[in-house]
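User: My collaborator sent over this chain with a note saying "see what the structure looks like." That's all I know about it. Can you take a look?
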Amino acid sequence: MTNQTIYALSTVYGKSGVAVIRISGREALNVLQQITNIKVDNIKPRYAYFCDIKTANTQELLDKALVLYFKAPHSFTGEDVAEIQCHGSKAVLNSVFKTLSSLPYLRLAEPGEFSKRAFYNQKMDLTEAEGLADLIDAETSEQQKYALRQMEGNLKNLYSSWREDLVKILSYIEAFIDFPEEDIPETLYKEITNTVFKVKSEIISHLSGNNVNERLKNGFRVVIAGAANAGKSSLINALTKSETMIVSDIAGTTRDTVDINLDLNGYPVIITDTAGIRETENAIEKQGITRALQKIEDADAVIALYDATEKDFDKSLISLSSKNIIYVANKADKLSDSEKKIIETKKHLLISAKFGDGLPQLLNLITEIIKDNFTSSSNLLITRTRYRKALEICLENLEEFSLDKEIVLAAEDIRLACRAIGQITGTVKVDEILDNIFGSFCIGK
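Assistant: Without extra context I'll predict from the sequence alone. Here is the result:
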């Protein structure tokens, strides 16, 4: 890691009331000496100073701002850090950046470099750093909640506990490598095998989720399926409260799948409108129906929508290959009370997409499906594909482990398992993956 002092804008560039410029490194105080009237010899850490920001050479006034100093190691990066809270106009920011860039010992930070320095200075591990990235990207309350849990070190603690157990086992085994004539005592033999079994079982349980992390990051998929003219596009418009889809009495208006993003009680949800499923000779409509069937197969939940005024129930909905199906009867506004009771006996949800009747109940049902099928009981989610791959490698080596093998080979199995877990948190050397991790951060982080 370079020892150069770095700077970057930590807030969004553009017109705003306040912008924060962060400076980190051993020359942070020197920067303040050059561009402010603060006497840095007597500067008080974590204290806000209201002062002038000036050019380094001509002392021309650029702005009046708040300046804070965080003394190492009690800062985000673990280095000396200065923060300038100035006005957020482009003119002010450009002038401050210009004077900062003129200082020879200062350079613009690379993407994620502040967090990367925090990692190297042991202010956070890799899982906590990636939790921070997820928090910055969070758009719903559930995404925010899980990102905060990861930032607090919940995943780190889980993975570290497994690694500590395995390291302890490895130390036992390696002790006997030096004394091959000694037999492993039965009590220790049991402790080793029981610990490996315990870690193995917990990793299997952790891996066996429904890929909640992918859904939480990218959205839970809910598909609206049904015959042409059942009111699928009208339902989309009602859910989004906008004229998102073209609505027509002509069957087959929607000929392709269309995705709409919603924040549903804190969960990111992608609602997909599909082409009406029916027999057709139109080549384009046929392709849309094929795509619709694929979307249904991949969906986390399916809204099987049908026209409640039709005498015959849409039999194509019965054969839909999804376990999370909500049967919904649309156009309830056109039914008599007796007709409504008949549908209610089937435990189908009655709605009117035209007038919005029944939509709150439909959204609640979708939320319940997500909660029942995709919420982690331990509240610890595998939030990165690299975590999953590392845990799978760890598990493979634990599956290979046996004290009936040559003790050197048994030790190697545990050593490789430890290394795989260590790559998640950064306990072992993982320079080859650091750039990929921190490169996804914004410049000011």
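A starting point for your reply to your collaborator: The chain has three domains: 5-109, 127-209+382-438, 218-374.
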